[in-house]
Amino acid sequence: MSFEALGIARWLDEALASMKIHTPTAIQQACIPKILKGHDCIGGAKTGSGKTIAFGLPMLSQWSEDPFGIFGLVLTPTRELALQIAEQFAALGASMNIRIAVVVGGEDFVQQAINLKNKPHFVIATPGRLADHILNSGEETIEGLRRVKYLVLDEADRLLSNSFGSDLERCFSALPSSDSRQTLLFTATVTDAVRALKDKPVPSNKPPVFIHEVENIDNIAIPSTLALHYVFVPSYVKEAYLHSILSLETFKNSTSIIFVNRTSQAEVLRRMLRKLDFRVASLHSEMPQSERTNSLHRFKAGAAKVLIATDVGSRGLDIPTVELVVNFDIPADPDDFIHRVGRTARAGRKGTSISIVAEKDIDRIKSIEERINKQMTLLEEIDDDKVIKDSLTASSVAKRESLMEMDKENFGSKRKINKSKVSKVEKPSKKKHTHKHKHKPQ
User: Fold this and answer.
1) Cβ distance 233 to 379 under 8 Å?
2) How far is CA 211 from the centre of its chain?
3) What distance in Å separates the CA atoms of residue 75 and residue 230, rounded to the nearest whole number?
């Protein structure tokens, strides 16, 4: 089946052909015709299956018939995903002089306000920064949002979690009501919160919500081409084992992502591995946006072979050459594990995942194995004597030096200051709140 047969405009079919994209994927075949017919849509498909094109093509196709104001808003959980989606929209709409505004944290707030005021055709945003503009930039800046025809929630399961709740509400407050716009939700994990949306009453002027899950994605969470391994280690020597893994003949030339749970740990490992002569980049929320973008470009271009990331790097990022994913820290949520290891073994390629399991991680590993319906196997190549001989001293010295540097530079102080500001603001309101309900009748 061709893209044109799905109903999209001919100019888009030509744009896809120039990008060497000729055949629609399952999620694209299912969702594009329904979106073009006016259905709200929930699309679930594994990472790398072309979800951006599934929602992008129908939006661009209809925009080209009537290119007014802000036609569509795409909300996504991370800055990197927003930039990636914007790049795809720009490539697809290049022949039509498309104008796109990217509204994310870490970039010039005033320039973003000017871009919004000029009413671009599409806005790609993270909820927190767009909510800031709605709150602070004035009606003239955000009035274009009040006429959008499409709202997309990309990585919808993450956006619908509690952490984005208040920002999403503020974003929705500036948009047309759900009966005056189309709402499209796309995700690699169709959670109960996402599924529940299909049961909401549908306005009489709209067709029913269309929900499509490719091949029941819950059952194919881990591709068969992905080898799942673990090493069981004492927590205080995790860095030495990581060094040994990356130094193995099998992996020493591999493109690798190392996932951690905290920004401070990401920074320690970045500095430590650099001292040990690895070409390394990192991606975490304490970095300025320009550095985050630069790190990702270096990694994609192969200038860095190892990327250390918190979960800001686990979702949707299109880096097809990743061969190894190391979980230095085990995530609390099994779905986060699925997203992390989804960075490798994409599009039929082989890949390897290694989890560094410490004594407190056993329950998390059991939950992950239950969720993915697979057991990890022990990585046989790691030999304890070899770790002690080749890695322990070097990694311990490099870690100690890194921690001393970070301490000297007050790494993380900005976050601590922001946290203390938040707690100072919250304390009085908590007292008030308690007092208010003290005499409330039961």
Assistant:
1) no
2) 22
3) 35
Looking at domain 4-217, its CATH class is: alpha beta
Q: Looking at residue 221, what is its pLDDT? A: 63
Q: Please report the pLDDT score of residue 423 as a whole number.
A: 43
The segments of the chain whose pLDDT lies below 50 read 216-220, 417-442
Two tokens, residue 313: 């790097």
Contacts for 13 with CB less than 8 Å, ≥ 6 apart? 2, 3, 4
Buried b (16+ CB within 10 A) or exposed e, 205-220: ebeebbbbbbeebeee
Tokens of 405: 């540097």
Alpha-carbon distances, residue 12 vs 4, 8, 96, 239 (angstroms): 8, 7, 10, 49
- What is the pLDDT, as a whole number, of residue 88? 93
Q: In what order do the strands lie in the sheet with 256-259?
A: 280-283, 306-309, 256-259, 324-327, 351-357, 226-232, 377-378
Element (H, E) at 186: strand 182-187
Domain residue extents for the chain: 4-217, 221-408
User: Per-residue b/e over 64-80, b at no fewer than 16 CB within 10 Å?
Assistant: beeeeebbbbbbbbbbb
CATH T-level topology, domain 221-408: Rossmann fold (3.40.50)
pTM for the structure as a whole: 0.73
Q: Contact at 8 Å (CB) between 16 and 158?
A: no
Helix ranges (DSSP H) in 40-118: 51-65, 79-92, 109-117
Q: How far apart are CA 235 and CA 125, in angstroms?
A: 38
Angle at 69 between CA 66 and CA 72, to 5 degrees: 80
